[in-house]
Amino acid sequence: MNDTSNIIEELNDRSREVFRRVVEGYLTNGEPVGSRTLTRLMNEKVSAATIRNVMQDLEYLGLLDSPHISAGRVPTQQGLRMFVDGLLEVSDLDVADREKIDATVGNGGGDVGGMLDRIGSALSGATQGASLVLAPKHEAPIKHIEFVSLGHDRALVVLVFADGHVENRIFTPPPGQTPSSMREAANFVNALAEGRTLSDLSRVIGEEIKLRRQEIDALARELIDSGWAEWDDGGARHERLIVRGRANLLEEAGAEEDLERIRILFDDLERKRDIVEFLDLAEEGDGVRIFIGSENKLFSLSGSSLVVSPYMNADRKIIGAVGVIGPTRLNYGRIVPIVDYTAQLVGRMIADRS
Questions:
Q1: pTM of whole model > 0.85?
Q2: At residue 295, does pLDDT exceed 80?
Q3: Could you give the angle at the alpha carbon of 65 between the alpha carbons of 62 and 67, nearest 5°?
Q4: What are phi and psi of 312, to 5 degrees?
Q5: Are residues 343 and 246 in the same domain?
Q6: Are residues 80 and 332 in contact, defined by beta-carbon separation less than 8 angstroms?
Q7: Same domain, 179 and 299
Q8: DSSP strands (E only) in the chain
Q9: pLDDT tens across 168-209, in order?
């Protein structure tokens, strides 16, 4: 199959317009576009039979497909990629979208985690997709840690950093926890924590547990392990993936198999097993990147598209990413500037706070 950049150069003006209008129609309403519809839209007056011949040629090139017996066509994954790379017209950021995103940053205090949560919600609301925000690790020294029971199967770990930043995470504690074992675990961690970063503390706790294993109550030791796993992440990076707008994708999905693919996608995200890969995707190039269907090794099972952009700190180092995931018929021309603006805004806010 030819490279998409070569194919688009080989198309004549009529073929290119037919292709563009099929894709734009599909992205607008998700339905196949037929020759009769195109006769009303084309710049030049042309018969439905001529358009059908052009569509057949585009199908032969692998750019269009016939999903049903009807004469309508939809773009293939390769066709969408060619459209995005060569024909996509990116609009300016809508004023209402900008104001909606700006307003979320202005709400609340100086907590970066809270800001990123609000950014994710605004991004999901503006795009009607699911938003992904990869928060950076926090490397300030720790001041205090506390474990709080929320029930027999839920507990909260609270991290207070020396710079005033606070993080709260819910986790599943080992069975049989008591208030005294939680206090013992917190006392043990706090005796080691002050003045150390999370990276330092993970290493020191591991060494201390080996040295004092007989002295530490077994339940308290398990509690430390369970709570700390929220940040240690198996020795990987200390980023956190915030996902908002799951309902948008579930509402968008029609067929039962689509719903199942989306459930699989969110199961993957909730297990957070792809966090590092998500950042790697964003780091592979500057600015906004678009992944369509199986091009994206993270979300290929969902049959979805991902629009993602990294954000940087004051030193121009990539520290996280923001993105939108939705069906392949995303309004790319509108979503690209939203993601781009959001990434730049997050980078500026984090740089200002640091």
A1: no
A2: no
A3: 155
A4: -120, 160
A5: yes
A6: no
A7: no
A8: 64-65, 74-75, 130-135, 142-151, 154-161, 166-171, 240-244, 289-292, 304-312, 318-327
A9: 777 778 777 888 888 888 888 888 887 887 767 877 877 877
